[in-house]
Design goal:
single chain, alpha/beta, Rossmann fold, 7-stranded parallel sheet, 36% helix, 14% strand
């Protein structure tokens, strides 16, 4: 009985941003649970069925939708930060150009949730949408103010869509990952010799479990939210997989 709660046989899933480390782990996890998964991204990086598209361009997503059809599970995992929109001694908050702010919002909010939901989500008549948030959506991290603000908007839009689409049988939730080493943040977290940087040490010191997460540790949360049997009464919520980062205090 317990295993049947997480059986996704018969479900179809689209993972936008599934070419990244975290999105790729989720895509494979959904496939392992029985779902028929299609990955959408810019570059093919796995053996799963793949459709090339740019999530920040709605016409590109519309063409991808024509190829995949409407899924019963939609995972929106596209996102990332831009160093040009990061606070540094040379670039204080008040000097970050608007176009740099706009680029980060386009990637994380517009391409990360808005366009995918307007194209794929709007066509869904049942199922589950899972958006990927960030611990910085809850508490703004130093330096990455633009990324933090964009991810906070992801949480708000998730709750809005949960309310709007509940009547048609579509649940909308988010997952907040903690710190998972990936291509975009590895240089910030590890030195060339593989030892943690001072910033990485500070992050682990603020994480209750005192370590970084592994991509496979997001899979259980995603399968839970994808399964109508396991989480049929769960919508409009955020599931934290952060090793206790947001629970830690002085």
């Amino acid at each position: 009985m317990s295993s049947s709660l997480f059986d996704l046989t018969g479900e179809t899933a689209v993972v936008i941003g599934g070419t990244g480390v975290l999105g790729g782990a989720i895509a494979q996890g959904l496939a392992d649970a029985g779902a028929k998964v299609t990955v959408i991204g810019r570059t093919k990086r796995s053996e799963l069925p793949f459709v090339a598209a740019d999530a920040t361009k709605i016409d590109s997503l519309r063409r991808a939708h024509e190829q995949t059809g409407t899924p019963t599970i939609l995972v929106n995992a596209a996102g990332g930060n831009d160093p040009k929109a990061t606070v540094t001694p040379e670039m204080p908050f008040e000097k970050i150009p608007h176009e740099n702010w706009a680029g980060v919002f386009d990637l994380n909010l517009v391409g990360g949730v808005l366009f995918p939901c307007q194209v794929f989500g709007a066509a869904m008549t049942r199922g589950s949408i899972i958006n990927i948030a960030s611990v910085s959506a809850h508490i703004p991290l130093s330096r990455v103010v633009t990324y933090s603000a964009a991810k906070a908007a992801v949480l708000n839009l998730t709750m809005f869509l949960a309310r709007e689409w509940a009547g048609k049988g579509v649940r909308v939730n988010s997952i907040t990952p903690g710190f998972f080493p990936a291509e975009q943040n590895r240089r910030l977290l590890f030195k060339e010799d593989g030892t943690p940087t001072p910033r990485a040490q500070a992050i682990m010191g603020h994480t209750a479990l005192s370590r970084f997460g592994e991509p496979k540790e997001l899979v259980g949360a995603a399968v839970f939210l994808a399964s109508s049997r396991a989480s049929g009464f769960v919508t409009g919520t955020d599931l934290r997989v952060d090793g206790g980062y947001l629970s830690q205090t002085i």
